[in-house]
Design brief:
Elements: E1 4-5, H1 11-20, H2 25-37, H3 51-60, E2 61-62, E3 68-73, E4 79-84, E5 90-98, E6 101-105, E7 109-111, H4 120-123, E8 126-129, H5 132-150, E9 161-164, H6 174-185, E10 197-201, H7 205-214, E11 218-222, H8 228-234, H9 243-253, E12 262-268, H10 276-286, E13 301-307, H11 321-333, E14 338-340, H12 365-373, H13 383-387
Parallel strand pairs: 1-2, 6-9, 9-10, 10-11, 11-12, 12-13, 13-14
Antiparallel strand pairs: 3-4, 4-5, 5-6, 7-8
Bound molecules: S-adenosyl-L-homocysteine (SAH) and iron/sulfur cluster (SF4).
Residues 118-120, 165, 169, 200-202, 222, 265, 267, 306, 308-309, 352-353 line the site of S-adenosyl-L-homocysteine (SAH).
């Protein structure tokens, strides 16, 4: 029998597993705290657990951490880890320190099947979903490594915020994501508040609806275009879930969300989606006006404009600074809080959309996307065509 990986379990699942081996729930809590709060992987060191329990654990379980194959440190303090997850796949995790917080950007899949036009991960294709244990292991490794490296006192936390904005579309790995979120939120685990855990999605409408019921955390939605024609070209998932459905799902999500707004992310692409008219169309959209909107449905939101981070062969360029600022002004003048994301860690390729660990493209997403780009029926336009 292969040993179970205890990182795969949220507290309820750990309690059920403990019950199977004849242990009470409070033992599961103790064990959970040893693993997640103290970073202990060696059962022998869990000194307040009975010897009989430690023996059972050693026989049947493991804390299967991910071992980094590299750790890069940017001049601005950003740290990027590369983890080998087997089968020729590698994923990336990024730590972004700021004055008042430490944010960890976590991957949910090896690759991504959505294939957004401007994203390095999408260009690599898709291999597989990560397990709950592999999602949690990124936080486990970062938290406990950074605590040692930063010399933090007992009880001090390195990571105060988590964003599911690494490689992959988290809502296409829903079954593994939700228990991982529960580990992050659990007081016996990392104790993060729902406001400090953000799931970012390119618009998986049915799963936004499920997340609202199962585990409502902060939601970021990658919008990138004010109309369906352009969004279809940039974010292929839009063909399945067009803007009106997405706006409705965002509005419904807010009924249960820990924050009273949705964060819309918008990657600024030179000459593609960055004109003042497009900014005005966005204002219309989120206020329930215009052809793509649900008539009369206003979605309370903030905008986060992300300067496009180039990667080889993207064929796209970042909007000039003044154009990004002008775009932001249109939104701000309409009363929408809008920030321009500072690019962090670009000297180590850790910036948004640059994460591109090796991926074995098992489902041939890459080939299919390339065919489309080469002029198939569903051709994805080039930057020049998008501009026209
Ligand atoms: N799949 C999810 C989360 C991962 S991507 C999503 O799409 O939301 C995290 C964010 O980085 C998204 O907003 C995405 O649009 C953005 N992004 C992707 N490629 C980028 C690039 N090359 N430059 C800037 N931002 C990018
Ligand atoms: Fe996937 Fe997000 Fe990249 Fe789109 S932007 S390809 S959804 S990781």
């Amino acid at each position: 029998m292969t040993a179970v990986n205890l990182l795969d379990f949220d507290l309820d699942a750990l309690a059920s597993w403990c019950a199977q081996i004849g242990e009470k729930r409070f033992r599961a809590q103790q064990l959970f705290r040893w693993i997640h709060q103290k970073g202990q992987a060696d059962f022998e060191q869990m000194t307040d657990l009975a010897r009989s329990l430690r023996e059972k654990l050693a026989a049947h379980a493991q804390v299967r951490a991910l071992v980094p194959t590299s750790e890069h440190r940017s001049a601005d303090g950003t740290v990027k880890w590369l983890f080998d997850v087997g089968g020729g796949n590698a994923i990336e995790t990024v730590y972004i320190p700021e004055d008042d917080r430490g944010t960890l950007c976590i991957s949910s899949q090896a690759g991504c099947a959505v294939g957004c036009r401007f994203c390095a991960t999408g260009h690599r294709g898709f291999s597989r979903n990560l397990t709950t244990g592999e999602i949690v292991a990124q936080l486990w490794h970062a938290e406990h490594t950074l605590r040692r490296q930063l010399g933090l006192a007992a009880g001090e936390r390195a990571i105060t915020n988590v964003v599911m904005m690494g490689m992959g579309e988290p809502l296409q790995n829903y079954g593994a994501l939700v228990p991982a979120l529960r580990v992050m939120l659990d007081d016996h685990g990392y104790g993060l508040s729902r406001r400090r855990v953000t799931v970012s999605t390119s618009g998986m409408v049915p799963m936004i609806e499920r997340l609202r019921e199962d585990c409502p955390v902060a939601l970021a939605v990658s919008l990138h275009a004010p109309d369906n024609a352009l969004r279809d070209a940039l974010v292929p998932l839009n063909r399945k879930y067009p803007l009106a459905e997405l706006m409705q799902a965002c509005s419904d999500y807010l009924e249960r969300a820990p924050r009273d707004f949705i964060t819309f992310e918008y990657c600024m692409l030179d000459g593609v989606n960055d004109s003042p008219e497009q900014a005005r169309a966005l204002v219309e959209l989120v206020n329930g006006r215009g052809p793509a909107a649900v008539p009369g449905l206003r979605v309370p939101c903030k905008f986060n404009l992300i300067p496009f981070n180039p990667f080889p062969d993207s064929g796209l360029a970042c909007s000039p600074r003044e154009r990004v600022q002008a775009f932001a002004r249109v939104l701000q003048e309409a009363g929408i809080v809008t920030t321009i994301r500072k690019t962090r860690g670009d000297d180590i390729d850790a910036a948004c959309g640059q994460l591109a660990g090796e991926v074995r493209d098992r489902t041939n997403v890459r080939v299919r996307l390339q065919r489309r780009r080469d002029g198939g029926v569903e051709a994805v336009p080039t930057a020049a065509e998008l501009r026209a």
